[in-house]
Amino acid sequence: MRAPEDCHSMEDLRAMIDALDAKIVGLMAQRAGYIDRAAEIKTDVGLPARIDSRVEEVVRNVRVRAMAEGLDPALIETLWRILIDWSIAREEEVLGPDAPQEGTE
């Protein structure tokens, strides 16, 4: 990977962006594997897909990371809330939408 300042044409920039996009998609696929495993474990221990305290913890974590990286934390929060909602929907395919709520806080 070249640094942005080492890209001297739009073709160079586009190639680096495309390479990063491929890595991001790969990381998202890896994250989905962990989500699938979480659904299995939650089934065993009786947890629901959505645990609001964990959702907010994840959002806080990515906002802090965004600020440390010089990114807009509001934008990152918006993107992550979409990712979290997708992840919960994926878990609900295994757990069902009416999973138990006790012991989640």
Summarize the structure in words.
- The longest helix has 36 residues, at 10-45.
- Helix 1 (10-45) crosses helix 3.
- The chain contains three helices and no strands.
- It has helices at 10-45, 52-68, 73-95.
- With 105 residues, it is mainly alpha-helical.
- Keywords: Isomerase.
Low-confidence parts:
none
Please give the count of helices: 3
CATH superfamily, by name, is Chorismate mutase
By CATH, the topology is Chorismate Mutase Domain, subunit A
User: How many domains make up the coordinates?
Assistant: 1
**What's the main sheet like?**
none
Global structural class: mainly alpha
What's the CATH class, please? Answer: Mainly Alpha
Strand content: under 5%
Distance between the termini: 43 Å
CATH architecture classification: Up-down Bundle
Q: Tell me roughly what share of residues is in helical segments.
A: over 70%
Task: Give the oligomeric state of the chains in this entry, treating copies of one chain as homo and distinct chains as hetero.
Answer: single chain
Q: For the residues shown, what is the average pLDDT? A: 93
> Count the strands?
0
Shape: elongated
Order of helices and strands: HHH
Instruction: Round the Cα radius of gyration to an integer and report it.
Output: 18 Å
